[in-house]
Amino acid sequence: SSHEHRLNFRKSKEACLSYIQDALLRKQWKRAAEFLTCYVESLEKDYSREHIGPSEMIWRIGTEILWHHSQSSMKEFNCFMEQMKTLGVKRYLKVCLEHVFHLLCNGQIDEAYQNLSLAESWRFGEQTAVQDKEMKLIEAYRGLLDYYSWSKQKNILLEHSEDGFSDLAVEQEMHSYFRKAAVNLKEIIKIPGVWDVFVKCYVDLLEFYGDHNEARQVLNEYAYNSKFPSNPNAHVYLYQFLKRQGESKKSLISALKILHDIVPSHELMIDFNTMLQKSKKRKKRRLGLEVIFAALDYAGWKENAKAWSCLARQVKQIVISEKHLDWIKQEWDSRKDWWPAFHFSRYLAKRNWQENKSLSYEKALVAGILLGKDCKYFKYVSHQGCKAQLKRFRILKKFVNRHNPVYLRISG
């Protein structure tokens, strides 16, 4: 009860937490568990009058330890989570959600669904209204599991239809899951946020039953509503839907243009470039060159043979026609100081030649045009190709030598 006793007690608790943190950082799960046990025991002996709310700390730390501890079991984890649910009503739904995630990660779908149903029926005075967002998530994840059950029944029904049989009971059960899933999924995606998995599942339900207008409306809202955070996947889903529906190239290009502005390194930039190159409009072909140059600015694209093929094809077309060389010059001016080391070193030439000759061919063509016939990358690859008596490399060498004046014009 003395001031000195309370001070020492507080210091010992802080020290214990420090030891727990150190053990967690070092991934010493057994040691962390021992210190957490000491910490919990010390709280039980805390006679100070200060308000202490350690339940969330114990929940977070305990969950992390049980997740990684070599000797922990699912039974222990379930028991721990049930105890955590009773420690504080303010965190009840959050603990329920984390418990459900753990059950799902361990393949216990039915148990997860049961826990969601119990959480959904939970009520505790004013806390119910305060935790409205958490309750929406509980309902949404239950909808997700209803979708999972619907998908399983759908596959059974499709298998039966291939054999020439129809199963009315399966079809009725499938429709029941559809109705339950659709209601909850539709509700969560009305709230501004990132709801990728929920949107994909809801759109799948709508498309299966032929409600394409509703699916389009959902995806447009998800992609273009300014209240929602910027999300590249929203535009990917819209593009994929439009493509499935056989929409015009104009619509597809419009969807990918926004994706390009957000994520210029997205894998769909290959599709975007291909569509733009096929356009009769000069403005779109110009954009296509910008798109593929921008994609190749990223390390993840350095050895993407398709991307280099797209760039090589367009650069070759421009060089042969001798039109729009200014397009290449404009793109190259901002890259000529760093692309040579990034893409066209002798080291990369050797490695690309050994690992992927098609890639080295496309890169050598681009290197030869942008850096001239004396470029290290072009010289090494063309020499190796001619040495191996590969006809396409002899033609490549002649092409670059013949159009070397283009390099002089591009380099200024």
From TrEMBL:
<dbReference type="GO" id="GO:0000120">
    <property type="term" value="C:RNA polymerase I transcription regulator complex"/>
</dbReference>
<protein>
    <submittedName>
        <fullName>TAF1A polymerase</fullName>
    </submittedName>
</protein>
<dbReference type="InterPro" id="IPR052669">
    <property type="entry name" value="SL1/TIF-IB_Component"/>
</dbReference>
<dbReference type="Pfam" id="PF14929">
    <property type="entry name" value="TAF1_subA"/>
</dbReference>
<dbReference type="InterPro" id="IPR039495">
    <property type="entry name" value="TAF1A"/>
</dbReference>
<dbReference type="GO" id="GO:0006360">
    <property type="term" value="P:transcription by RNA polymerase I"/>
</dbReference>
